[in-house]
């Protein structure tokens, strides 16, 4: 977009976790969290797109009605619309609350194979308010850690 100023920030945490953030003029921040997970693309994809798979690591329980996923956590629930997916590659959601507020932000979970090493990586791209990015990264780090444990990787 014309007139937008972008600044990229990168953090390397540990051996296999990468954080990055992109700031724009509106103070919404796109950030990424990447984690190496020793699992096949197929087993990862089922954990990203099915209620049983998502309830193993992302939420306590998950229901799907058409393209709307309802996630339950300790008495609270949130809904997200499935925007798009490509088998064994990625899934992209938009929180219904953001949709109702007219925001076009989404979160994406992408499965990638590192070309040099052949390692499987999970890359999360999400958005948060500038003052909530650190907290959002910590949450994704915990969630991806849970996913890694579930898969034994």
Record the SSE blueprint:
Blueprint: E1 7-13, E2 17-23, E3 28-36, H1 41-49, H2 51-54, E4 61-65, E5 68-73, E6 76-86, E7 90-95, H3 96-100, E8 107-113, E9 120-129, H4 133-151
Antiparallel strand pairs: 1-2, 2-3, 3-9, 4-5, 5-6, 6-7, 7-8, 8-9
Question: Which tags fit this structure?
Answer:
153 residues; alpha+beta; Alpha-D-Glucose-1,6-Bisphosphate, Chain A, domain 4; nine-stranded antiparallel sheet; 9 strands; 24% helix; 44% strand
Measured between the Cα atoms of the first and last residue, the distance is 40 Å
Query: Which architecture does the CATH hierarchy give at level 2?
Result: 2-Layer Sandwich
Proportion in β-strands: 35-45%
**Annotated CATH topology:** Alpha-D-Glucose-1,6-Bisphosphate, Chain A, domain 4
Number of helices: 4
Average pLDDT for all residues: 85
Total of domains:
1
Helical content class? 10-25%
Largest sheet: 9 strands, antiparallel
**Which word captures the global form?**
globular
Output the CATH class name.
Alpha Beta
Give the strand order of the largest sheet, numbering strands 1, 2, ... along the chain.
1-2-3-9-8-7-6-5-4
Account of the protein in words:
With 153 residues, the protein is an alpha+beta fold. It has a single domain (7-151), classed as 2-Layer Sandwich (Alpha-D-Glucose-1,6-Bisphosphate, Chain A, domain 4), CATH 3.30.530. The chain is 24% helix and 44% strand. It is built from 4 helices and 9 strands. It has helices at residues 41-49, 51-54, 96-100, 133-151; strands at 7-13, 17-23, 28-36, 61-65, 68-73, 76-86, 90-95, 107-113, 120-129. The chain has a 9-stranded antiparallel sheet with strand order 1-2-3-9-8-7-6-5-4. The chain is globular. It starts with 6 loop residues before the first strand and ends with a helix.
